[in-house]
Automatic annotation (TrEMBL):
InterPro entries in the record: Dimeric_a/b-barrel (IPR011008), Tscrpt_reg_AsnC/Lrp_C (IPR019887)
Record-linked Pfam families: AsnC_trans_reg
Higher taxonomy: Bacteria, Pseudomonadati, Pseudomonadota, Gammaproteobacteria, Oceanospirillales
Protein name from the UniProt record: Transcription regulator AsnC/Lrp ligand binding domain-containing protein
SUPFAM superfamilies: Dimeric alpha+beta barrel (SSF54909)
Domain Transcription regulator AsnC/Lrp ligand binding: 4-63
Length: 76
């Protein structure tokens, strides 16, 4: 990841996780916002103006179907 982009992400507590990925996207961010206005402001005022960002595609979680923390590792 570009240092300037990492710096941008670390400035915003709403960015909870960030991954460099293969496929159509270069990065996947897990962002938690209090509402759609805050999320939209983050995208339009911080992400899109950044020189390394040319496009943003977002997906909103409507409902959690299953959450399993940790890894399913069996004890010895």
């Amino acid at each position: 990841m570009d240092g300037d982009f990492v710096s941008l992400l670390t400035k915003h507590a709403m960015v909870r996780e960030a991954y460099s990925v293969s496929g159509d996207a270069d990065y996947v961010l897990h962002v938690i916002a209090k509402d759609l206005t805050e999320f939209s402001d983050f995208i339009h005022h911080h992400l899109l103006p950044h020189p390394n960002v040319t496009q943003v595609r977002s997906e909103i979680i409507l409902r959690s179907m299953k959450e399993e923390p940790g890894l399913p590792v069996k004890g010895g």
